[in-house]
Design goal:
The protein has helices spanning about 40-45, 50-55, 100-125, 170-180, 200-210, 235-255; strands spanning about 5-10, 15-20, 60-65, 130-140, 155-160, 185, 185-190, 190-195, 215-220. By secondary structure, it is an alpha/beta fold. It comes from Sphingobacterium griseoflavum.
């Protein structure tokens, strides 16, 4: 059976990667009839437009399949949202897909992890290290579309760094400083570490295996760049966030070009 998991990968001649693993919205036609959730309900918990932000001058891995089909940022056992407690209380399926399709999804999970392993190992072999920008977004208006965002507990950017080796602290600090020095639409950036999210399963996996050779920066943008209830994008903010990441990428490349912090 062909893979049910769709993604785009683009290789570049540097050690940096931009991941957008929750950007996807696609559900395989082989699975559509089993879903109870509609497209709008799925979109609310996906990370739309992070794929656009990940289109940086570096290696890119952008997932096209919805996390509601297969979430590679969770463990294999939790990567398929079989029960509401696995999906923000949402009943994802009208009925679970048949076992052979579930097994295919699990096989796709193992297959993509092998591919990611190979890509990261290639970066290490070619450059001696790797840096991943693991780009996500999060909802801050959980109660209603008119809810006032509590900015005390919901930073504009949450940087998940918990699982990185301490040797990469200078890289993390440099990223924080570079972002903090920028503005988006004439507004200073509120970036904080590990307030809402600390890094997901894929980051943990890579750092457990290759943590002495690389750093994963899990960049969670508050959904200020869109209406999180309707999905309508605010294109100027999306472009501003992409430019912000571009500056951070160039700054870290300059920092590491002389072998610093490696």
């Amino acid at each position: 059976m062909p893979t049910l998991f769709e993604f785009n990968v683009r290789k570049a001649a540097n050690a940096f990667w931009a991941f957008a693993i929750h950007d996807g919205h696609h559900i395989s036609p082989m699975l559509e009839s089993y879903y109870q959730l509609n497209e709008d309900e799925r979109l609310r918990e996906e990370d739309p437009h992070t794929g656009c932000m990940a289109e940086l001058p570096c290696n890119q891995f952008i997932v096209r399949t919805s996390r509601f089909q297969l979430d590679i940022n969770r463990t294999l056992e939790k990567a398929i949202y079989r029960h509401p407690e696995m999906a923000w209380g949402l009943q994802v399926y009208r009925e679970l897909p048949p076992e052979h399709l579930l097994q295919q999804l699990q096989q796709d999970y193992l297959s993509i992890y092998k591919k990611i392993d190979m890509w990261i190992a290639e970066s290490i072999a070619a450059h001696g290290y790797f840096i991943v920008f693991d780009i996500h977004s999060y909802n801050a208006k959980r109660k209603s579309p008119d809810e006032i965002v509590d900015e005390v507990v919901n930073p504009q950017i949450n940087l998940g760094t918990l699982y990185n080796d301490e040797k990469w602290r200078p890289v993390i600090d440099r990223f924080m400083a570079t972002v903090s020095a920028q503005q988006v639409l004439d507004t200073n950036i509120d970036i904080r570490e590990n307030v809402k999210f600390k890094g997901g399963q894929l980051a943990q996996y890579l750092l457990q295996k290759y943590g002495d050779k690389g750093c994963v920066l899990s960049v969670e943008f508050r959904k200020d760049f869109m209406d999180e209830w309707t999905g309508v994008p605010l294109t100027p903010v999306i472009q501003a966030y992409k430019q912000l990441l571009m500056h951070a990428l160039k700054d870290l490349q300059n920092m590491l070009s002389d072998g610093s912090s490696r």
